[in-house]
Amino acid sequence: MLEQVTLSSNGIILEPLTLAHATDLIKACQDGELWKINVTSVPEPDKVIDYINIADSMPDRQAFAVIDERTGKAIGSTSFHDILPASKRLEIGYTWYAKSYWRTHVNTTCKLMLLTYVFETLEYQTVGWRTDIDNHRSQQAIERLGAKKDGVIRGNRVRRDGVVSSTVMYSLLKSEWPQVKIELINKLNQSP
Q1: What is the per-residue pLDDT across 125-153, written as a single tens digit (0 to 9) for each?
Q2: What integer pLDDT is reported at residue 16 of this predicted model?
Q3: Domain 7-190 class?
Q4: How confident is the model at residue 174 (pLDDT cuts 50, 70, 90)?
Q5: What is the value of pTM for the model shown?
Q6: 8-state DSSP, 42
Q7: For a disulfide at 90, which of 33, 83, 156, 178, Cβ 3.0-4.6 Å?
Q8: 80 neighbors 61 (Cβ within 8 angstroms)
């Protein structure tokens, strides 16, 4: 639905996710055994190829590999999804990074690149996020970006452990973007 694009800033590259990233992503998801966290979309190491193939087959998803420019290795993934060109809305999700990159500049850098592209190049009006109701870490990260909590969709998803759970929805409007952009840049300038 969207043109394939590669974005780069602050030592991080976002490039279209392909099977060429599989070996790196297997190592990335093993960093912290992330697939064991029931409230995330991180694949099990032996399911990374399936994860990439599924992402590639979804017509309303554009998946990216997150590359650490210093090493040239993929350290995680993120996606545009639920892309609605008519209403100029999409969501950012399926986001995960190797645990050693948590609480670094990586997430802020990725979101700044993605949001700049969505609002300033594509001229979309709304970006959304969703996360499991029990994924408080993700909720805090989304709120730190400046997104507003829209509400909770109750009982709409099944976690990998089979538990039916609820989803917390967030959004950011194009009119809110200029202030959020300033805040994200300031956060990056304060990062070590």
Answers
A1: 999 999 999 999 899 989 988 999 999 99
A2: 97
A3: alpha beta
A4: very high
A5: 0.93
A6: P
A7: 83
A8: yes
148, β-bridge pairs? 171
CA 62, distance to chain mean position in Å, is 11
For the segment 50-67, the average pLDDT, to the nearest whole number, is 96
Tokens for 75? 């350290």
CA–CA separation, 66 vs 54, rounded Å?
17
∠ Cα 14 100 28 (to 5°): 55
CA neighbours within 13 Å on the CB side: how many for 170?
A: 20
Cβ-contact 113, 106 below 8 angstroms: no
Half-sphere exposure of 82 (CA within 13 A, CB side): 11
pLDDT of residue 36: 86
Domain spans, the chain = 7-190
Q: How far apart are CA 100 and CA 33, in angstroms?
A: 11
Q: What is the pLDDT confidence band of residue 192, given thresholds at 50, 70 and 90? A: low
State the virtual CA torsion across 23, 25, 29, 35 in degrees, nearest 10: -100
Sign of the torsion formed by the C-alpha atoms of 5, 6, 8 and 11: positive
